[in-house]
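ugh finaly. both done.
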Amino acid sequence: MPDPKLFTAFNFRVEITVPGLFDDDVCEAAFSDCDGLEMTMAVRTFQEGGNNTQQVQLAGPVSYGQVTLKRGMSADFGLWRWFQELMKTDKRGLRGQASIVMLGADGSEQATFALKDCIPLKLKGPALSAREGVIAIEEMQIAYAALELKMPGVPS
């Protein structure tokens, strides 16, 4: 049996809430894929006067990736509702909060990636084909303003 303390990439769940959208809970699901949990810090480099053998590196602004979620279609169309509400002129500021929760082999929470002020960028329906018996997959890309890693038992 796998060690419950090991991080596994296949066992996770996604929770998205959008305050002001229906009952706030847009999605709580197990997705087949989640990609794009990333932060990049720009480094500013300059040469210190009189010191020709090294450079000074200063931390610059941080940029964030875009999360891509894929899952099997279900009867819950919360992601579609969120996207459709944002298309309305008076709802353009509707931002969501998302959590990607990594689970251990025993189902316990190992780590949580908290995505702040999310907005859906792309929504793609499943490819439909009567010739193939594959599972219908939909895809959504979400931009986020900040990313925070939360670990159980470690204060934020």
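ok and the 2nd:
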Amino acid sequence: MPDMKLGVMAEFRSAEELLRAVARLRELGLRKLDAYTPYPVRELEPLLEIKRSFIPKVVLAMALFGATSAYILQWWCAVVAYPLNVGGRPYHSGPSFIPITFETGVLFAALTSFVLPLVLAGLPRLHHPVFEIDGFESVSIDGYWIAVASDDPELDRLRTEVELQGLGARRVVQVEGKRK
């Protein structure tokens, strides 16, 4: 969710508690939710309505583009720009173009799969409002955090805070700031 304004955040002790909290918040009608966990929790994807990434399709397209470009460039050099008859061999010899074609496809795929996620994540980002929350560093060890966007039409901060505490949250925090 790009440009999500953080509203209420809560920390839980386990992934199971986090999953119960997300399910309960969805029952209450809250839709703009995000979760921060120390490792991927696959059960969160359908609850948070996380869509599959389009990055693999772009990487494949760039790999095919790179391979095609390399093949065409080799063909053009060997057949059109500088045809050289060595021992009666044909100008266009596909098998001799395979190594460069393959390597260029791999190069384009690797560069795309490295740069595209960084660009889409907005990195390098030097500041994020969640880093100001006391104890948020636990998300890299054993903390499971849920965030509710302040612009969610169903958000009632007080009711949400009480609900999260009732679900067993270690702490509930009101957050101001933007996530870009």
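summary for the 2nd one i guess: Residues 55-120 form one domain.
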